[in-house]
Structure formats: C-alpha cells, structure tokens
Design a protein that fits this description.
alpha/beta, 5-stranded mixed sheet, 9 helices, 12% strand, globular, CRAL-TRIO domain-containing protein
C-alpha cells in the first residue's frame, strides 16, 4: 500500500526538524552568535548539503565568519558600490506566481570594474542579494532572476566577476535562487558559459533555464503573471533600478 504524500511530507519535515536541532546545538557551541539565526536559515544550509548536519554546520559557520568580516556594518551601503551602480544594470520589480521577487540583470551593461575592482563587484553582489531577500514576503525564501544577454559581447565578459558572484550565491546564500531565466543569449556567450558551468553545483544547475527568443513571453508566463512581467518582455511592469526599490 502506497504511503500518502502528506505522511511522507510530515516524515521529511520531522527528519529536517530533528537535524535542525542537532545543527543548532553544534553551531551554537562553536559560535554563540548563531543563537540569533532562525530555523529557516539553518534549514537552507542543511538542504544545500543534502541534510548532512556536519557539512551544513561547517558551511554555516564559514558563512557567519565571512559575514562578520565582509559586511561588518550588517549591510552594504550605496557609497560602497558607486562604480557598479553607475552601470545601471540591475533592476527589481514584481513577483512571480509563487510570490518570489523578480530581479532583472542586463548583461551587456556590465563591464569589468577597473576603479573599484573585484572587491567592489562582490560588495555589489551582496548588496543585490540582501536587497532581494528583504523583499520576500513572509514564508517565501527564494527569488527569480531574468538574466538578459541581449547585445552581450566579449567586452562584457568578466570571468572573475561571474565566478565571484556564483561563489557568493552558492556558499553564502544557499537555497535562495528559485529560477534563473537566461534570455537573448548570443552564441559567443556559450564559450564563457562552458568555463563557468563546471563551477555550478547540481542544485543550482537545475534552476537555470535558457529561453529561446520565440518562446520568451510564453516561458515567462508559465511562472509569472503578465502584470508582473517587465515591459521589455511583453509584460506590464517598467524596470526599476535596484537602488530605487
């Protein structure tokens, strides 16, 4: 006789709750500041490490140490990322059908940061991720990104930045990305993609979708109501620069 979905789900939830308690005891012993962290955060780290308490605890403690040194004031201010903001490449507006906030990045507006360097770019990534997470409604833990590569060329290629952003997302914001739609990807982008792809973990790979131009609006409509889709993709929302949201 088959077990009901509800029974199986409650069993999984119970297993996770037990592991969260174990993980909490472990991390609070190592770093007392862990007491301030809620259960959903610990659960995300657990899921990112396939419910392995030891690995998840190690990952989480590394995150805490990173956060204390990289974001000592608790948040990144606009004055710390002026060169990145000046490229006007990151936008945030609307929510998908699951209530996940939607960010849009225009890849052809990104150029290697010669003034602030890779460190400023990394600060910008943290600024973006914190901003998106702050827009999540109660009960929602994930976000959606539309990565638009229209007009992208080799002058936009910035491997160190791409890998830096990927590392921050995977190591310090696990289980936050719900879906990444890559749209208008030119053929030459695939040469860079082949280099980046091996660094993407399997959980993240499942969330990335390359969208064909002719199926762009119909693909977005599967996940997002037309009223929440950016105007540039046939929807109704104007793009809003991330610093203005």
């Amino acid at each position: 006789m088959m077990m009901s979905c509800e029974y199986m789900k409650s069993n999984i939830d119970e297993k996770e709750e037990t592991k969260i308690r174990l993980m909490r005891a472990l991390v609070e012993k190592q770093d007392p500041s862990s007491k301030e962290v809620d259960d959903p955060t610990l659960r995300r780290f657990l899921r990112a490490r396939d419910l392995d308490v030891e690995k998840a605890s190690g990952m989480f403690l590394k995150y805490l140490k990173w956060r204390q040194t990289f974001v000592p004031n608790g948040s990144i201010s606009l004055s710390e990322v002026p060169n990145e903001l000046s490229q006007n490449k990151m936008f945030m507006q609307g929510f998908d059908k699951k209530g996940r906030p939607i960010a849009t990045v225009l890849g052809a507006r990104h150029f290697q940061n010669k003034l602030g360097g890779l460190e400023e770019f990394k600060r910008f990534v943290v600024y973006i991720l914190d901003k998106i997470c702050s827009r999540m409604p109660p009960g929602q833990e994930k976000f959606v990104v539309i990565g638009d590569l229209k007009g992208w060329g080799y002058s936009n290629s910035d491997l160190r930045a791409y890998l830096g952003a990927l590392s921050i997302l995977q190591d310090y914001y696990p289980e936050r990305l719900g879906k990444l739609f890559i749209v208008h990807a030119p053929y030459i982008f695939m040469t860079v993609w082949k280099i980046v792809y091996p660094f993407i973990d399997n959980n993240t790979k499942k969330k990335i979708v390359f969208v064909q131009d002719k199926k762009l609006k119909s693909t977005l409509l599967e996940e997002i109501d037309e009223s929440q889709i950016p105007e540039i993709y046939g929807g109704q929302l104007p793009l809003v620069p991330i610093q203005e949201t």
